[in-house]
Amino acid sequence: MADIHHSFLGLLVTVLYLLSGVSGETLSMFSRVGDDVSLPCNNVVYPNCSSTTWIYNRAGSKVTIEEVALGKIKVEKTERADRLSLESNCSLHVSDVSAEDAGLYTCRQFLTETGPRHGGDAPVHLSVLTRSTASTARPDFSTTSPYSAGSPPLNQTHIPSLVLSVTQTLILTMGVGVAVGAAVCVVAAVIIARRRRTKAQMTADDSISQPADRITYSSIDHFNQNPHHRVDVQDEDTVTYSSVIP
User: Fold this and answer.
1) Burial tier of 169 (Cβ tally within 10 Å: 0-12, 13-18, 19+)
2) Which of 50, 161, 167, 208 is most buried, judged by most C-beta within 10 A?
3) Is residue 224 part of a domain?
4) pTM score, whole prediction
């Protein structure tokens, strides 16, 4: 069951990766908890990243955090700093992604440490896909004895069900929203199909487990109300043939 959930989650992430793209001037990206992701910077001035600064706004928060300042990781002595690095093309690499990493990342350029911002921003929305499991119980129909008052209850089988959620960043644009909606519809259809198949299997098991002492047999005797009539056939010598001429 865990392998099925893992494969299903991987398929969903693949769909979301395909839906990632630019909407207007904002790049929207998706990642799964525990994966690595690289957020591109599309306004690089100096190839050595000495002019690149990354700022971060966590989803649902108005606080702005300066992650990278002029090519150097600034958030020091924090657990998050150990998971951040700057790649050769000035992209911000986040390793071992967590749900708290979802938010708006903005790449900016400053030609000097005290100078004004150069050019426009390059924002990137990061949404993080998380999963959790919930257990439901149903009677175990593998028992052969019927349930009666005073007897112990039937065994319970716990069936884990997959619950998916996406921690999205702020307000996504309409184009990305429609794409995500389409992906959610696909996921919902798969979950509904799995639930119907499980319900059908439970019904089949219920019919198979019917106790033998409750089965009633009946016999039907069929009487023919039209018995065969005896037909007397005359001897061949007494048969007379005649022909009729029109």
Assistant:
1) buried
2) 167
3) no
4) 0.52
- Range(s) of the domain holding residue 93: 2-141+155-208
- Could you give the CA distance from residue 115 to residue 102 in angstroms, rounded to a whole number? 30
The tokens describing 49, both together, are 């990243």
What is the CB neighbour count within 10 angstroms for residue 67?
Answer: 19
For residue 150, is it within any domain?
no
Average pLDDT of the chain to the nearest whole number: 69
51 close to 45: Cβ distance less than 8 angstroms: yes
CA–CA dist 20, 129 (Å, integer): 13
In the chain, the number of structural domains is 1
Query: Quick check: 37 and 128 in contact, CB under 8 A?
Result: no
User: Residue 233 domain-assigned?
Assistant: no
Contact 123, 94 (CB under 8 A): no
Handedness of CA 115, 101, 173, 18 (dihedral sign): positive
Residues 59-113 pLDDT 10s: 888 899 999 999 999 877 667 888 999 999 999 999 999 999 999 999 999 999 8
User: What is the amino acid identity at position 71?
Assistant: G
Helix (H, G, I), strand (E, B) or coil at 100: helix
Cα 18 to chain center, whole Å? 15
3-state helix, strand, coil in the chain (%, to 5): 25, 30, 40
Query: Coil, strand or helix: which one is 200?
Result: helix
**CATH number, residue 171:** 2.60.40.10
Helix (H) or strand (E) holding 194: helix 174-208
83 is a domain residue: yes
